[in-house]
Structure formats: C-alpha cells, structure tokens
C-alpha cells in the first residue's frame, strides 16, 4: 500500500466534485492535494475522463514538479501547482477549471468587481485577473511561469494568498486554492457563482457602484477572523 | 420528544426544498418556521450542509433572538428572522437565499419592475429593493438592523407585508416570507423566476413599459382576494 | 368508466411533459386534449401540482366552457382553450406555459424575428405577439377575450392557425396548439428554444438580418407540405 | 448479421451522446460513422426520437448519398454528410446539431472570435461561419450544396479540415467532424461551450482583444502536433 494513499484519496474525491458541481466539461480541470510533511502532492492524470478516475491513478509529484510515483502522466498544469505549493507554505489543495463565467471574465481580462455580500463573504477585494503573460514567458516554461504570474499578480496588488484564495489568469481561466483540496473546490464553485452574479449585475445596471467598505468588512468578518460567528 | 418537533420538521422540509429548487449553492440560504402560540421559531443551524441536516438539528429561537433549544449555533441571519416574526404577527415562515438572478438585482440596487402577468399573479407592485444600510447600522447589530431595514422599506413605500411577501436587500440578496414556511419557499422560487424574466425582458427591449393597471389587478385578483378563482 | 377516459389520459400525459421539458415552475402552465366528436376537452385542474395529477383529475369541459364532468375546478385559463377549440376546428390540443424566454419576449411585446432554420423548420414567419388587451376586455370576461385576442392577431396578420401553431400574448406568455396535445407540447418546447436563440442572436449582433425567403421556404417545405422529406 | 454492424453501433452510441450532453432538443441533430474501406457510413434515421433509436435502425449510405441498407429514411441532412466524406478522406465521423449558443452565432453570421485558451486548446483560428448560400443553391440540391458551402468556406480561408474540425453554417447551425464519431461529438460539445464563453466575454467587455499568437500556438501545441504533452 502506497504511503501516499491518503492524498490520492483526497485528490480523487476533490476531482470528482468538479463535474458534480458543473465546473468542468470533459477533462477541462484538475485538483491536487498536498502532504506538506512528505513534500509531495497527488494530482489528476492528464486527459483521463472523470468517470475513469480511481484514487490509484492520481500521480504523486514533488514541489519541483518531478513525478515521484505513478504510471500515468500528470496533468499538463502540474508545474503551476508545484510552483504554488513550493512558495505558499500554508496551502493544501489547488484547483484549476475552465468554468463558464469565470473563464469569460478571464477572457475579458477584467477583475471581477465586488458588488455584493456573496462576494464579501469570501474576500474583501475584487477577484484579481492576472494579465496575460508576455511572449517570452509563454514560449518558455509556460506552466511554470503561470505559477509565477499568479504570485506576482497578488504581490503587485498587495494581496495575501491566505486571504484571497482565487484568481483569474488573463485569457485563460480560474485557479483557486485553500488549506485543503475540499476548500479549494469550494472556492472554485464560489468564484463561478460570483462571476455569474457580477456579469448579470452589470447587465441590469451599467453604472453599478461597488460594495461599501463597512459592508465588505462586516460580511467578511462574520465568516473569517477572530470574531467570526458563522458555522459551528 | 421535543414540543417543538412540528416546527423542526416543517423547517427541515422547507430548507430541503431550497437545493431541490436550485435556489442555493452550498449553505447560502436558510428557512425558519414559527409557532406563534409558543412564541418561537425553528431555524437552520449555521453553515451546516443541506445533506447533513435532520429535523432535530433545527435550532429553536424566540422572537428576541435567544436560543431556547438546540445544541448547534443558529443561522447567522437569525436576528433578521426574529425581528420580522416579532413585528409581523401573521407570518409563519421566512426564507433567505442568494439565488442568482434575485441577487443580481439586489446588487444592482434596483426594484424589479412589474413587466408581466407572472409577476402580477403574485404582487401588484415592483418587487422592492431596500437601500443598503448606512455604515452605523452595519457596524452595529447588523442582522438585527437588516430586519428593520426591510420593515422600513415596505413602510416608506406604503406596502403591506401581507400583500408583498418578498424583498431584495440592496447589495445583499432576497428575503421572502409567508403564512407558512412552504409559502415562503414558494415565494423565493417565484422571485427568482420573475427576476430572470425581468432581466431578459430589458435585454430584449430597452424601453419596455410596465404592465397596465387593469391587467395587474385582474391577475392578482384571479389568485387573491374575495373573488379569486384560481386553485381548488 | 368515463367515456372521456381517452382524452383524460392524453391530457394527463401531455401535462406531465411540461415539467419534464423544463417549461413550467410549480403550476404555471396547462394542457388540454379535445375530442371533436364528443365536443369536449379534458384540461388540467386549477392550481394542482404536477406531482399530484392523475388522469382522473382532468376536468371535462365543453367548447362553451361549461364543466361536463369532474369534481375539481378546471384551469383558470379554461375559457381561452374553449374559445380556440370552438373556432379552430382542426386542433386537438392546446398548451399554455410561462416558459422563461417565451415569456420575456411576450413581456417585451415583440414578435420573435425569424433568424434561422431552427425557426423556419416550424413556421415561415415571425412568431407573432398579440398586443395586450384594452382595459375593457381585461375587466370583462378576461380569459374568454384572451382567446379572441389570439384569433384576431392571426387574422390581422393574415396567418392560418394550421400553419402558425404558436403565439405570444403581450405582457402575458405563450400559447401553442396542434392537431394533438403532444404536438402542442412539442410546439411549446420549440417556441422556448427559438425564443432563447433569437435573444442570443440579437445580443451577439445588434443589426442581424432576418432569414432570406428561399431558405425559409426550403426548410419549412422539408418538414411540411406535399414534398416534405423529413421523418418516416 | 449485417457487415455494417460496427458502424451502426458506433453511430448509435455517438448519437445517444447528443441528448446526454445537452446538445439537442427532440430530433434536432444527427451523427454518422463511416467505414472507409467499405465506402459507406451509418447515419441516424430522419425524425426518429433518440429514445427510440437502436443500432439496427441506423441507415447505411454510400458516399454519393445512396441508401445501401436499412428500412428507414436516413437523416434529411444525409447528402451533406456524403459530400464531406467523399472529399475529406481522413474523417470518420460527422455531427450536426442545433445547439443553443452555436446556433445563435450561426444566426448572427459571425465567426466565433478566439478569445481564450479553451478555444486555442482545439483550434488556432476563429471558428469559421460559412455565409448563407445564394437562392439558387438553396432551391437546388440544398443539402448537397451545404456540403460544398462548408468545403468552400474552409478553402477560401486557407484552413485544413484536419486542423479545423468545426464550422457554423450561416443562418443554420454547427457541423463538426473528426477521425471518429466520438471525436466529432466531442468537437460539438467544445464548439458549444466556446460559443457560450465568447458570447459572455463580449457582454462583459465590448472591445475585448483576441488571443495573442504565442498563447494560441502554445495551447494548441500542448494538445496537438509532434511535441504535444497533453493526455496519456
């Protein structure tokens, strides 16, 4: 029995949530689950349909992107996951999808404006959209550079990956993360619904103002921080 | 056996309708069921996934917001429910959701205009959108104030909670109510479909006029009032 | 055993198609099935949820709108059905829904423009939208007048009910019909999908031209008329 | 046992994917599967509901459009399939649907612009929209001419059917193809989701630029060509 079985199981279960939540068509998405002590993560094999997945098919990769165990080729986005795990020490799961509304915002190269409490329940700022990479980065080690593009975007905006657990990569699609793979999947679903609501909001009213600061703080702090009172 | 079992059962069943009707993602919604004689209501526990709910997990709260029975923490929106039950003597159920189209209108801070008979079958006026609260109200007892914001909005527009059983809270999302929790859930689904139709109507024709008064009265009175002839 | 059992069964089965095809929320729709020899039709009882329907609950009504058999009150739209059956001798089924996109066009008081072959496979003209009725008609025998409003709209546009089996009633919603109740339900689903496509088409291109006449004729005649070659 | 059983089975299975993927309403679509050695293809019979299909009902047709085996009339679009099989020697399956977003773009007579990597994962150019045919072509052998219209559109744009496996026919709807019928169905689902994303992208930002060339090449070559590294 593999010593990685627990993260294979976690990665498997989290991957299977994506089609169930309507976040992927065919194989357009992937989830990974990390074990920080072992210094590795389990990730979906590339191009394998969700209905053919099993926990044992999850590929074990280290934080430099080397395959440690597994017969299948890992997701083509593996290096992006590796870079983020390597630099962000407190995350345990990463999700990438091409969910419809999130991808439409990414293709528009716009941050998703904070228009309501559904958004503020999860983060206090616009959902950031990293600019498309330059030609050199794309032609080089593309997936590796995607990880750095994500980190640099947060950094330039002064955002912490522990507070902002989601991003759009311009022209591409959403990435989300969290302390666990379940939380990262949760964040992908939140991003998609917030993306749809923001799209509809602008259609209904062109000049809609952003949420006032007091309401942002109130809703965020209901769910997060020292005085939160949401949940059990 | 708890003497509150009947409202726990009613609250449970009504809560379980929300995901079935496509009105909630994860735990973004809650229903309560009141017993007027006992002076309490049963409400969903905070942050508990719908698939983990049981009637016994519903928390019993009085109309001042004090927990009377139950081991779990009640919904974070409990004080809003309490305020409305306390002041509106004829309601027996309240629902709060972040349903997609209703929330988009709330984020736009616009009333939903009355454009057709689907709307007029249920109310004779635009679905009101309460303005976002001021900073002081938000920073104070937020959920308590949300209840007063709802009541004040109806009052300022000269509307009766017995005739208008739904509202949007600006920047936030819909609240609905009714004589029973089932009716309140029904109203949440009606609000969502009317919100979608109104959105599409304005997209199809920018300068669309509102419904003429005679048609509003006709459809409303078919279903409501002394000469109604809809239903059995 | 009722001598009306065959139309009760037909009306029941056709009614049950509406929720299955996503054309109704709750009880917002109804189907009737006529027997021309007996001079009656079976129609959904008013306000009864689809899951509670049985063939025996279908109410038998004559073409003047009098209930002939049945303990329940027939649909509130019964007189509209009666008028159409009385004047249009070749129809055997009628459907009324508040389907989302069809209703949005009706609320916009616009005909649905013929933009493509999906539309032309079923009719050669825009789907007509009857203007809202005047106050007198609405305050009078409303549902009866709705039937006349539908007939008058077709007449004024020079359309035959045998070729155009669907209409929008302005500010209200779609009505469809056909030789059988199944065909009428089919037409309701066609109207809804054509309504959605036309809406999207105008969003994608504001100045989109209507379909050229040769293509309209070609597609319509593939499916209809003496030289049709669609189907078995 | 028919010597065509293998393509009947393949065509049957591929046809049954269309309703499962939400790409057809009623009978508005068809798939064919070719055997190049036998010089024939199996295609859906015309107007037969998907739930009534069996492998044995698939009609065998040669590349000139003559029925070789089968009691039912083949799809009314059969000649379009025949023309494409005759001229494009490397395809083994063809799909035609009236999927919602793809059809809306076709009705708009616009190519679908390449806005993101979901698109670039599958082709490096806008999804072409063939112009509507002239009156003469339509009044003549319409379905036969549709095949030539498709081929001519690719030719005029300098595109290879081996690289671009999808097209819109103006005013009509999408056609897709591939080495196998499964691949052709896959392409139909990809076209529909890319069509929806492109529609939303333009709604979110009017002046959105197309994808930069380096990113197009990178994503396309990840999945295709000599150095692809997607899949197993």
UniProtKB/TrEMBL annotation, chains A, B, C, D:
InterPro entries registered for this protein in UniProt: Aldolase_class_II_sugar_metab, Aldolase_II/adducin_N, Aldolase_II/adducin_N_sf
The molecular function terms of the Gene Ontology recorded here are:
aldehyde-lyase activity; L-ribulose-phosphate 4-epimerase activity; metal ion binding
Among its keywords, does the record have Metal-binding? yes
Q: Which SUPFAM superfamilies match?
A: AraD/HMP-PK domain-like
Q: Does the keyword Isomerase apply?
A: yes
Gene Ontology terms, cellular component aspect?
A: cytosol
Family (UniProt)? Belongs to the aldolase class II family. AraD/FucA subfamily.
What's the protein here called?
L-ribulose-5-phosphate 4-epimerase
Organism in which the protein naturally occurs: Paraflavisolibacter caeni
Q: What is the lineage of its organism?
A: Bacteria, Pseudomonadati, Bacteroidota, Chitinophagia, Chitinophagales
């Amino acid at each position: 029995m593999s010593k990685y079985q627990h993260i294979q199981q976690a990665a498997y279960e989290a991957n299977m949530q994506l089609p169930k939540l309507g976040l992927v068509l065919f194989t357009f998405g992937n989830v990974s689950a990390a074990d920080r002590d072992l210094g590795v993560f389990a990730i979906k094999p590339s191009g394998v349909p969700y209905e053919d997945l099993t926990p044992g098919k999850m590929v074990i990769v280290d934080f430099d992107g080397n395959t440690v165990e597994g017969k299948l080729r890992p997701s083509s986005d593996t290096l992006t996951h590796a870079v983020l795990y390597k630099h962000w020490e407190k995350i345990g799961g990463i999700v990438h999808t091409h969910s419809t509304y999130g991808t439409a915002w990414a293709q528009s190269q716009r941050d998703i404006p904070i228009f309501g409490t559904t958004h503020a329940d999860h983060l206090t700022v616009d959902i950031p959209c990293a600019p498309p990479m330059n030609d050199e980065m794309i032609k080089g080690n593309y997936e590796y550079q995607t990880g750095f593009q994500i980190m640099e975007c947060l950094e330039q905006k002064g955002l912490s990956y522990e507070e902002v657990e989601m991003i759009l990569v311009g022209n591409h699609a959403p990435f989300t993360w969290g302390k666990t793979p379940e939380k990262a999947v949760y964040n992908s679903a939140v991003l998609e619904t917030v993306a749809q609501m923001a799209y509809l909001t602008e259609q209904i009213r062109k000049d809609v103002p952003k949420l006032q600061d007091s309401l942002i703080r109130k809703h965020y702090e209901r769910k997060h921080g020292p005085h939160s009172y949401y949940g059990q």
